[in-house]
Amino acid sequence: MKLTDLRRFVAVAETLHFPRAAESLGVGLPAVYSAVDRLEEEIGHPLFERNVTPTRMTAAGEALLPEARARIAAAPTAPSTPAPAGGKAKASKGKGRAPIVKGQPKPYKKRQGR
C-alpha cells in the first residue's frame, strides 16, 4: 500500500465526500478516485458505498482506517528545510537593440526622409 493512497483514503474517510477530500489535499478528483480504487483492488473489498448519498464506509473501510492512520503516523516526514531555489540566472541573448514599444517607431529602423 502506498502512503499517498492511504492519505487520500483517510481524507475521504474523514469527510465522506470525494470532492471535499480532493480539495483539502490539493489534488484532482480523479487522483482520489484512483487511489481508493487501487486500495480496494489490493484489499479485495470495497471501502465505500459510492452509489448512496451521503457516501458511507463499508466494514472493510472501517477496519482499514485505524491501520491507515497508524501507518501515516509512523511514516518518516519530509525534511522541513526548503529546497534551494533554481539555478544561476542567465543573461538574455538578444541582439543588443532597444525593445519595441507599441505606438513608437522601431528604434533600429531609420525613418524614411523626404
From TrEMBL:
- Bias (Low complexity) occurs at 71-89
Stretches for region Disordered: 70-114
Pfam families from the entry? HTH_1
Q: Which UniProt keywords apply?
A: DNA-binding, Transcription, Transcription regulation
The family database entries (InterPro entries) matched by this protein are listed as: LysR_HTH_N, WH-like_DNA-bd_sf, WH_DNA-bd_sf
Q: Where is the HTH lysR-type domain?
A: 1-55
| SUPFAM superfamilies in the record | Winged helix' DNA-binding domain
Keyword Amino-acid biosynthesis in record = no
Name the family the entry cites.
Belongs to the LysR transcriptional regulatory family.
PANTHER family the record matches: HCA OPERON TRANSCRIPTIONAL ACTIVATOR HCAR (PTHR30346:SF0), TRANSCRIPTIONAL DUAL REGULATOR HCAR-RELATED (PTHR30346)
This protein's name:
LysR family transcriptional regulator
Instruction: List the lineage, top down.
Output: Bacteria, Bacillati, Actinomycetota, Actinomycetes, Micrococcales
